[in-house]
């Protein structure tokens, strides 16, 4: 499993795990970044963070947090 920081713009991913604890983890879960959720990398921030799209929402995630989110690439048929 790779991390979100490895995702390229336009790539479709599925969240596998969130390697954070406490308030950081809870905040990501509140924003919809749940294990099993399909996301699309919408862009890369100036300092390496990722902008992800979940449905119509866009969420910016800093580089450190993106390294803590494990993802799997979606297959072409999904």
Brief overview:
With 78 residues, this protein is α+β, with helices and mostly antiparallel strands. Helices cover 18% and strands 40% of the residues. Strands 1-6-2-3-4-5 form a six-stranded antiparallel beta sheet.
Walk me through the structure.
The protein has 78 residues and is an alpha+beta fold. It contains two helices and six strands. It has helices spanning 22-30, 63-67, and strands spanning 2-3, 12-18, 38-44, 50-54, 57-61, 69-73. A six-stranded antiparallel β-sheet has the order 1-6-2-3-4-5. The chain is globular, with a radius of gyration of 11 Å. The mean pLDDT is 92.
List the helices and strands and how they pair.
Layout: E1 2-3, E2 12-18, H1 22-30, E3 38-44, E4 50-54, E5 57-61, H2 63-67, E6 69-73
Antiparallel strand pairs: 1-6, 2-3, 2-6, 3-4, 4-5
Key terms:
six-stranded antiparallel beta sheet; alpha+beta; 78 residues; single chain
């Amino acid at each position: 499993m790779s991390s979100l920081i490895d995702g390229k713009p336009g790539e479709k991913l599925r969240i596998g795990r969130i390697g954070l604890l406490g308030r950081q983890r809870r905040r990501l879960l509140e924003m919809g970044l749940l294990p099993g959720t399909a996301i699309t990398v919408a862009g890369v921030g100036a300092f390496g963070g990722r902008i992800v799209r979940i449905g119509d929402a866009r969420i910016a995630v800093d580089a450190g947090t993106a390294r803590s989110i494990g993802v799997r690439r979606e297959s072409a048929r999904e």
